[in-house]
Amino acid sequence: MKNLTILTLDEPGVTDFAAARNKLLTTVKTPWVFFLDKDETITPALEREIDKAIHGRSPKDAYLVRRLDTFLGRELHHGETGAVTLLRLARAGWGRWERPVHEVWTPLGPEVQIGLLKNPLLHAPHPTITSFLDKINHYSTLEAKYRHKLGRKSSLFHIAIFPFAKFLQNYFLRLGFLDGTPGFIMAVMMGFHSYLTWTKLYLLWHKK
User: Cα–Cα distance between 130 and 85 in angstroms, integer?
Assistant: First the structure.
């Protein structure tokens, strides 16, 4: 696409995703940039919408994009992943990434205009349960270290209650049950992610 650079982050071994994305930003020579993960796909419809957005008469400073997850062969329209919108398209000097994991792209200026693209970004992050568990293990370690650095504490209450609450939120409140068995498994895995994060945070505070 004209006037646009698509940046893809090579994830294996990354321990600070914000720093890695900010480093990629320094290589951009075009007015616009789009961040695409390796397990994501830009559809032709989304490509046309991006092109129209950045070459329109009055483009926004940045754009959110919806993400549609596929897990175990089924599209997930509910639960934690069902309503995800991510800021992935922006002017090259618009902002910088923050947080080492579950990173967010934040503006440098005080006043910005953010739009929303209608066509989704396709996301197929977990081809197997084993790869899913590997990613959960890696991300929960990074998140626990980040929370430890911020001074957050963990306790038996966090370890015992929060993961179960996470499951209930995703499966019932966010209607994950409507996505069938894949929706149930996803809710369980997100609860397990919470369990690992709070447990690892506890161990960081109590290691000898």
Answer: 26
**Phi, psi of 77, rounded to the nearest 5 degrees:** -105, 0
Is residue 145 located within the same domain as residue 84? no
**133 in the same domain as 98:** no
Q: What is the pTM of this model?
A: 0.94
Last residue of a domain, one of 123, 139, 168: 123
Residues 152-197: pLDDT tens digits? 999 999 999 999 999 999 999 999 999 999 999 999 999 999 999 9
Q: Name residues whose C-beta falls within 8 Å of residue 186's C-beta, 6 or more positions apart in sequence.
A: 71, 76, 79, 80, 81, 170, 176, 179
The percent helix, strand, coil of the chain (3-state, each to 5) is: 45, 25, 30
Domain range enclosing 169: 129-206
**53 and 85 together in one domain:** yes
pLDDT digits (tens, 9 = 90+) for 70-91: 999 999 999 999 989 999 999 9
Residues 6+ positions from 138 with CB-CB distance below 8 Å: none
Give the domain-ending residue among 123, 156, 175.
123
